[in-house]
Description:
Elements: H1 3-13, H2 18-22, H3 28-35, H4 43-53, H5 57-63, H6 67-80, H7 84-98, H8 103-120, H9 124-135, H10 146-159, H11 163-175, H12 184-196, H13 200-217, H14 220-236, H15 240-257, H16 260-276, H17 280-294, H18 301-314, H19 320-332, H20 336-351, H21 356-372, H22 376-392, H23 396-409
Helix pairs in contact: 6-7, 8-9, 8-10, 9-10, 10-11, 10-12, 11-12, 12-13, 13-14, 14-15, 15-16, 16-17, 17-18, 18-19, 18-20, 19-20, 20-21, 21-22, 22-23
Protein name: Tetratricopeptide repeat protein
GO molecular function, one term: DNA binding
Organism: Virgibacillus salarius
Amino acid sequence: MSIGLYIKNKRKRLNLTQEEVCLGICSIPYLSKVENNSITASKEILLLLCKKLKIPYEKLEKSKDPYIDELLITYFNAITNKNSESAIISYKQIIDQYFALNQDQKNIFLLNQLLDLTILRKDLYKANKLLIEIENNLDIIITKHSYHYYKNKAILLLKQNKIPASMELFELAVKNVEQYQPDGDFYYFFAIASSKMECYCRSIEMLNKAKAIYIEQLDLIKIMNCHILLGINYMLVKEMTLAKEYLNISLKEVLNQGDKKNEARILHNLGYLEYKEKNWNTAVSYLNRCLNIKGKNYSSINTIYLLYLIRYKHLGMEITKDIKMAYDMAIKSRNEEYIIKFKTLIINSENGFYSEDNLTFLLKKAIPFFNKNGDRDDYKFYLKMAATIFESKGFYKKAVYYYKLALEIGKEFNHEFN
Length: 418
């Protein structure tokens, strides 16, 4: 811990103002700079401050020992690189230095280490409790170690789907990284958050950084995860050739590893890519292969929907019974997004695409829901449906209104229902 922070913490515990502490010693701005480590106070000033705050000067001198910072960096890098032997050695050395810290700093130090381990073990409930404890003592956190706090909170918020707040904290972590080398997982989770915020180029940048670290560590599974997300991102920016390249690389990797879960994930995305390129039969082939692995259940409801959408809308198949079964599945799982999606298909199949029932459902249910929830592409999809129906009925002003709303989300869109 720095001398300045040590003095600041001691002053606050004694409930003293800067004005009270610096009286007869130095000016208030001078003390403020000392506490914020902007300047290094002379020994004479420090001795006077120690006397005022009842701090043994020798203890203050110990607080500036940088050795624990160096050990923390060694420990952090050992954990990142999964070097357990080095981690154990540096941890024991840290414990020796740890007892030279004041009690408040000891507590924060231990909480930070526990938070790292808890996130690693994916115990989000415990991680959130630890985070609250740390946030109750934010003023004690050493500035140079704030990277860990921002990183861990960003990952927790991402896992809770609080994407804008997560992105803000990832940015703060980057600004506070200083001498720490961010680990591959930091860049990978940053990439996921960026992609969810539709910052696809930033996501691709972060994925390439993560991939470079994983290659050094020879972590084949995480390299594969980067390839999958790179493929998805390139698809979303309409770089379909690159998207296919990365997804097919990923498919070969999972087949070599026998990883069925990720094989299904890649097959779904290849199916979606072919759907976007209007290669209906190829898309159906990939989606069926995905379902052969996952089965028709709650976890594969997104694949079932895309498959039925293609078979009904683009291949002209009569599958109303299958759609109703999938709709019941969505109801049982209380999945509002897919309840609406399958209900729309049911209305289309029973009453017709241009029916009043379909238009009413779109305006009252589908469009309001996807305006606030889910993927923006889905919102655009239903806006275009409403616009097409209004256009067919001769309500051109309303058609233009909904087309404009769709254009605001993305200027390039395909007319799915022409």
